[in-house]
Amino acid sequence: MEARSRITVSIAASLLFILLIKLTFPEAKNNKELVHEFWMSKTHSKDKYNVVVCGDSRVYRGVSPDAIIDNTDLNLTGINLGYSGSGFSEEYLDFALSKLDKNASLKVLVLGVTPHSLTREAFKNDDLRSYKEVASTQVMKAGYLSPILKHFAPYQLSELIGRRTVSHIQEYKPDGWVASSFRVPNPESAIPSYRKTFSKYQVKETEVDAFLKKVGQITSSGIHVIAFRPPSTIRMRALEDSISGFDESYIKQKLIEDSVVWMDFSEADFNSHDGSHLHFESAIKLSEMIGKRINELD
Amino acid sequence: MIFNSIEFLVFSILFFLLWPVFRKGDNSRWGYITVASFFFYGWWDWRFLFLILFSGAVDYVAGLLLVRSKNYRSLILGLSLLANLGSLSVFKYSGFFAEVIQDAFLLFGVELDLLGRIPEFVLILPVGISFYTFQSLSYTIDIYRGRLQPTKNVLHFFSYLVMFPQLVAGPIVRASDFLNQLKKVRIPNALEKWNAMKMICFGLFQKVVIADNLSLFIDSAFENKTAYDGSLYWWFVSIAFSFQIYNDFSGYSLIARGLAKLMGYHFKMNFNHPYLSKSLKQFWGGWHISLSTWFRDYVYIPIGGSRSGTFKAMLALTITMLLSGLWHGANYTFIVWAGIHIVLLLIERHSKWNKKLSIPSPLLMVIIFVQVTVAWVYFRAINIEQANSIVYELFSFQASDLGFFNSYLNGILFLGLAALIEISIGLKRSYFSVLRFYKANNLDVLLAAVSITMILFFRGEGQQFIYFQF
Question: What does the H/E/C string look like for chain B?
Answer without folding.
Answer: CCCCCHHHHHHHHHHHHHHHHHCCCHHHHHHHHHHHHHHHHHHHHHHHHHHHHHHHHHHHHHHHHHHHCCCCHHHHHHHHHHHHHHHHHHHHHHHHHHHHHHHHHHHCCCCCCCHHHCCHHHHCCCCCHHHHHHHHHHHHHHHHCCCCCCCCCHHHHHHHHHCHHHHCCCCCCCHHHHHHHHHCCCCCCHHHHHHHHHHHHHHHHHHHHHHHHHHHHHHHHHCCCCCCCCHHHHHHHHHHHHHHHHHHHHHHHHHHHHHHHHHCCCCCCCCCCHHHCCCHHHHHHHCCHHHHHHHHHHHHCCCCCCCCCHHHHHHHHHHHHHHHHHHHCCCHHHHHHHHHHHHHHHHHHHHCHHHHCCCCHHHHHHHHHHHHHHHHHHHHCCCHHHHHHHHHHHHHCCCCCCHHHHHCHHHHHHHHHHHHHHHHHHHHHHCHHHHHHHHHCCHHHHHHHHHHHHHHHCCCCCCCCHHHHC
